[in-house]
């Protein structure tokens, strides 16, 4: 099992550590609900250094990205970030990812920890363009500083004007006295904030500086448990749960990152699927009766017929009710439709709602 550059600090801080995507990761410190509230209302720090980073460089770097991703990366400009998918050849998704345009010949791709090797091999398999590919995952640390107080808490550490940064843009500069740090106005919580990328050797220095600067704002370390409840309240997909090799981006509601203005892997088949309509859809739902939906629980209709399955579910700390996402047959996907979650052979009533759950 791999460690991040900050694993020893998490253990010293009393974090409960768990194996996640091949890494030893903090799942919680003070408790998931308390950490969730810290991020929603204040500011918290996630160590997400397990994520993967690839640098693609060369005259044809954009051509390779356009071939393997579903979104239109030609719309990017220097300092802009884009959410996208790597479609496979069978209608499913190899991974979802972020594409960063550093300059017109240099891009950084940020991929899920569990898919680093798979994604690398997939992209390399299409690299007939002579693009120079570097996997910098093992030497790169990534912290997500999330919450409405993030800009204020971090501003003393950098000359970059954090409050004026637009969502899904990034800047490179000096941060906490360290040069060449990528500061990105992105995140997976819906609470605002930043993600910062830097070399492992600077991890302890930057971590310490962030907590010193954020002390007056009640900054706290946050584990992966609260990261999951925060992303689920926003209806953000988690690879391996809500999307995978067998789910189409169109079924998953990711038509907005599937641009048929260009050709990409399997684009003709996906375009046909769009024209014909999908047979199932990823939906959000909230529980009406008591019960917490969990991954793989069957979704049934009033007669008890299976119409789909739960992909993610939790008790929402912000809403004080149970929420979830799952695939259902398209005819049951309309907002307001009553469905049932089969929990230990009991039919527990729920209704379809449109994410984000936390408006």
* Poorly predicted runs: none
The spatial strand order of the largest sheet comes to 10-11-12-9-3-13
**What is the share of helical residues?**
10-25%
End-to-end Cα distance: 38 Å
Beta-strand content estimate: 25-35%
Q: Give Rg in angstroms.
A: 21 Å
Task: Write up what this structure looks like.
- This protein has 359 residues and is α+β, with helices and mostly antiparallel strands.
- 19% of the residues lie in helices and 35% in strands.
- The protein has helices at 7-12, 32-41, 61-68, 116-124, 150-154, 203-213, 224-233, 267-276, and strands spanning 16-20, 23-28, 44-47, 52-57, 81-87, 93-103, 106-111, 132-135, 140-146, 170-175, 178-184, 193-199, 220-222, 280-287, 298-300, 306-316, 321-329, 338-343, 346-353.
- A hairpin with a 2-residue loop joins β6 (93-103) and β7.
- α2 (32-41) crosses α7.
- The model has no long low-confidence stretch (mean pLDDT 98).
Question: What can be said about this structure in brief?
Answer:
The protein has 359 residues and is of the alpha+beta class. Helix content is 19%, strand content 35%.
């Amino acid at each position: 099992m791999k460690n991040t550059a900050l694993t020893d600090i998490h253990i010293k801080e009393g974090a409960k550590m768990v194996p996640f995507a091949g890494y030893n990761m903090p799942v919680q410190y003070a408790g998931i609900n308390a950490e969730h509230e810290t991020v929603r209302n204040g500011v918290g720090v996630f160590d997400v250094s397990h994520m993967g980073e690839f640098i693609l460089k060369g005259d044809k770097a954009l051509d390779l990205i356009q071939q393997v991703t579903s979104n239109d990366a030609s719309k990017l400009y220097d300092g802009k970030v884009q959410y996208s998918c790597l479609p496979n050849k069978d209608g499913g998704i190899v991974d979802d990812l972020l594409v960063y345009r550093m300059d017109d010949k240099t891009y950084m791709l940020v991929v899920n920890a569990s898919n680093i090797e798979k994604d690398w091999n997939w992209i390399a398999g299409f690299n007939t363009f002579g693009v120079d590919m570097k996997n910098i995952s093992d030497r790169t640390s990534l912290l997500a500083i999330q919450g409405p107080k993030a800009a204020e808490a971090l501003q003393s550490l950098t000359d970059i004007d954090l409050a004026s940064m637009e969502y899904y843009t990034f800047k490179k500069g000096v941060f906490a006295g360290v040069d060449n740090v990528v500061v990105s106005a992105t995140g997976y919580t819906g609470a605002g904030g930043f993600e910062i990328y830097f070399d492992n050797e600077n991890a302890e220095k930057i971590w310490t500086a962030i907590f010193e600067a954020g002390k007056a704002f009640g900054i706290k370390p946050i584990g992966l448990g609260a990261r999951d409840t925060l992303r689920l309240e926003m209806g953000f997909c988690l690879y391996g749960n809500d999307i995978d090799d067998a789910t189409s981006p169109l079924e998953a509601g990711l038509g907005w990152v599937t641009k048929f203005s260009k050709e990409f892997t399997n684009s003709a088949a996906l375009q046909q699927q769009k024209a014909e309509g999908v047979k199932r859809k990823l939906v959000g739902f909230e529980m009406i009766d008591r019960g917490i939906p969990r991954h793989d629980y069957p979704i049934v209709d009033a007669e008890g017929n299976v119409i789909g399955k739960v992909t993610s579910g939790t008790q929402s700390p912000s809403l004080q009710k149970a929420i979830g996402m799952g695939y259902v047959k398209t005819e049951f996907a309309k907002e307001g439709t009553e469905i049932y979650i089969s929990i230990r052979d009991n039919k527990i009533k729920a209704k379809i709602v449109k994410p984000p759950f936390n408006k």
